[in-house]
Automatic annotation (TrEMBL):
Gene3D superfamilies: alpha/beta hydrolase. One of its GO terms (biological process) is lipid metabolic process. This is Fungal lipase-type domain-containing protein. InterPro entries: AB_hydrolase_fold, Fungal_lipase-type, Sec_MonoDiacylglyc_Lipase.
Length: 340
């Protein structure tokens, strides 16, 4: 079977979830994750057409006084294809409360986009997106991990040079979807100043919530719209956040002729709270006109949040024909085993 670029990026995005239940030091976590990733590169079907190797990372961050890692990013390269890189960013760690709180739900406050200014526009991103991007910018792989002690920018400059040519595709799922497009825009904005102008930057984000306001989304579309393929499942609740009008659709998202899965009372209250938190912020998706993949309600899952988790995690391999290619239970261990 020949895999599309989008299918390959989905596999790289999901591979970044290895290690979500690991505790201990960042170095130990990175070593365990790297071992699993090397095994995946040898065994996952999408990776068998080419010879891939991890050239930077995995770089892992665990918030102080917590036990589970909240951020992970790595860079992979096809052997023999000098100057072609994929940057993959992990999504929300489902077992890390700190990751949910700081990297997902800080959306009532917004931060100015510091890397560009456009006359007539006020570019803003959510506080969570700002926090997540800063975390990624500072990440450095630990000793004896590829790219050790170098930030992602230092690594790219060392490999590509101030005027070198290269191709970089940034990808990620969930929180990683929002951050992959945002990090790609950061790289685009600093080209010619802190990064070679001769780099072709693209991004394929999956299942991402909105990163910023309408001005930010429009600016992204102007800069990277032609180099971005945003992929969302029509039944995944995450891409509906944090646009106020989109959030209003969540109460009835799983009601159809085939099934009727309604949120419970406290879940409806949570949806109302999210709408209130984001009112007036003018959140907007990048590539907002891109049609989603048409999802299928799983009739067995009659609890709203279980259905939502299924659509967010299992839905993408299912809709993209990769259920036999991405070993979900191996990646997420006991975190989603009950959904499969």
């Amino acid at each position: 079977m020949s895999y599309t670029k989008e299918q390959l990026m989905l596999a790289f995005s999901y591979m970044s979830y290895y290690g979500i239940t690991h505790t201990g030091s960042a170095k130990k976590n990175a070593e365990l994750i790297l071992k699993k990733m090397k095994e995946a590169l040898k065994t996952w079907k999408p990776f068998q057409e080419d010879d891939w190797e991890v050239v930077w990372g995995p770089a892992v961050y665990t918030m102080p006084f917590t036990i589970f890692n909240d951020a992970m990013m790595y860079v992979i390269q096809k052997k023999g294809a000098e100057g072609e890189y994929v940057i993959a960013i992990r999504g929300t760690n489902p077992v890390s409360i700190s990751d949910w709180l700081f990297n997902d739900f800080m959306v009532s406050a917004m931060k100015k986009w510091p890397y560009a200014s456009v006359e007539g526009r006020i570019l803003k991103i959510s506080e969570s997106t700002s926090y997540g991007l800063k975390t990624l910018q500072k990440l450095k792989p630990k000793s004896h991990i590829p790219g050790e002690n170098k930030t992602i920018l230092q690594f790219l400059n060392e490999k590509i040079g101030p005027e070198g040519k290269a191709k970089i595709c940034v990808t990620g799922h969930s929180k990683g979807g929002a951050l992959s497009s945002t990090l790609a825009l950061w790289l685009k904005d600093i080209q010619g100043v802190k990064l070679s102008q001769n780099i072709d930057i693209s991004t394929i984000p999956f299942a991402g919530p909105t990163a910023g306001n309408a001005d930010f989304a429009d600016y992204f579309d102007d800069c990277l719209g032609d180099q971005c393929t945003r992929i969302a499942n029509s039944l995944d609740i995450v891409p509906y956040a944090w646009n106020t009008n989109s959030l209003k659709k969540l109460k009835s998202i799983y009601i159809s002729e085939q099934a009727s899965v309604k949120p419970l009372l406290y879940q409806r209250a949570l949806i109302r709270a999210m709408i209130a938190e984001t009112k007036g912020k003018k959140y907007k998706q990048i590539k907002a006109e891109t049609p989603p993949l048409e999802g299928n309600i799983n009739p067995i899952l009659i609890e709203y949040l279980v259905q939502a988790a299924y659509q967010h995690v299992v839905g993408y391999p299912e809709l993209m024909g990769m259920m036999d290619d991405i070993p979900l239970t191996d990646i997420f261990e006991d975190a989603i085993a009950g959904l499969l």
